[in-house]
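Molecular record:
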Amino acid sequence: FPLYWFSMPAIMKGWMDRVLVQGFAHEFPNCYDSGLLKNKLALFSFTTGGSKEMYAKGGISGDIRYLLWPMQHGIMHFCGVKVLAPHICFAPEYVSEEKRKEMLIAWAQRLKTLWKEEPINCSPEWYFK
């Protein structure tokens, strides 16, 4: 998905609001590691309008991990989902065609070994280090 206004597009958030409902995806106190969707995997793959430097620690847009906290931790991990490291294509609109092709090749390569990846540690330390 494209990163819109430091978050997911409204249509995607609306889908999550309608599908990840209490009783199906979460049921307090069954949340986080004991959430109803435990043992499921999630991976956020998205593009940005800004460069990697803009989303680095100290960058004008702040560390990309800060933006991922509410989406990966607050939604997916809350429901018990194990989260894989995100796949981010920074500013594809502003790079050469060759760089865009490299982005697609990297994504295709990652998909070949995706099931072997270990989930991230969905803790505040991972996001705010």
Notes: The longest strand covers residues 45-47. The mean pLDDT is 95.
